[in-house]
Write a structure and sequence with these properties.
Elements lengths: L3 E5 L4 H15 L6 E5 L15 E4 L15 H20 L3 E4 L1 H9 L3 E3 L4 E10 L1 H5 L9 E8 L2 E4 L5 E5 L7 E4 L3 E4 L7 H10 L11 H9 L7 H11 L3
Parallel strand pairs: 1-2, 1-3, 3-4, 4-11
Antiparallel strand pairs: 5-8, 6-7, 6-9, 9-10, 10-11
């Protein structure tokens, strides 16, 4: 089987490695079947998309809608290098699954409007599939409504007309969408379970996701969630697109 490509951009090793391990666990991939590139660590190496079954973009502390003058040099470099790869991915409809930051990357690339209107604190939320989501083969193993972990400062306020809305929540209308046939993005985190979100709360204290000193309260909130189903999306993505 051709491996899947994981494009990551978390600078903290514990968060980056946790994300990598979670993608492996929920997708069912073996380590040799997932090629990780940490985009924040250095220039994006040459990548031939024909070498991969599909592309997964992990979450990130980067905010795509932030003004260019407020972005770090690393974020500007990552986005500059990612743009031509996204051009090819979209043009060829290469299987793509973006989690959280994937909404920003694919959404901005396709003309979505992103801002802080529908930002959500770190918490479990109830995600509901749209009729199009219930009909989508990637989501066939999910119930019509399920809990998932979120935590983001920006979100899609307006999708481009050619995008298909697949899932929504009361606090964020765009929780998942599809472009063409094979390009998916989720605002929620399909790779996160309770242990994973607790690790991220510890890592990202001071990043503005919650007030200083409030980590304990946020941990109590996430412990009340019943997050069992989102990981099935990763398994479904691999089953659907794995190729020799």
């Amino acid at each position: 089987m051709r491996p899947f490509l994981l494009l990551a951009s978390r600078a903290e090793d514990v968060a980056a490695d946790g994300e990598h391990d979670a993608v492996l666990r929920f997708s069912g991939l073996r380590p040799g079947e997932l090629h990780r590139v940490r985009m924040e660590a250095g220039p994006l190496p040459p990548l031939d998309l024909d070498d991969y079954s599909g592309v997964i973009v992990g979450g990130s502390p980067f905010d795509s809608s932030r003004p260019e003058t407020e972005k770090s040099a690393v974020q500007r470099r990552v986005e500059r290098e990612l743009a031509p790869l996204l051009d090819e991915i979209v043009d060829r409809d290469v299987p793509f699954l973006g989690a959280c930051y994937g909404v920003g990357t694919l959404g901005m690339h396709q003309g979505a409007v992103l801002d802080d209107t529908f930002a959500e604190p770190i918490s479990p939320v109830t995600v509901r599939l749209t009729p199009e989501g219930r009909a989508d083969p990637l989501l066939a193993d999910l119930p019509d409504a399920f809990e998932a972990y979120v935590g983001h400062k920006e979100a899609v306020r307006e999708l481009p007309p050619h995008a298909v809305l697949l899932a929504s929540s009361d606090t964020c209308p765009v929780q998942m969408f599809r472009i063409k046939e094979n390009l998916y993005a989720t605002q929620f985190h399909p790779e996160l379970d309770l242990d994973g979100i607790l690790t991220r709360i510890g890592v990202y204290q001071g990043y503005g996701y919650f007030p200083p000193g409030a980590a304990g309260e946020v941990e109590a909130v996430v412990r009340r969630g019943d997050v069992r189903f989102p990981g099935r999306i990763l398994a479904s993505f691999v089953r659907r697109y794995a190729r020799d």
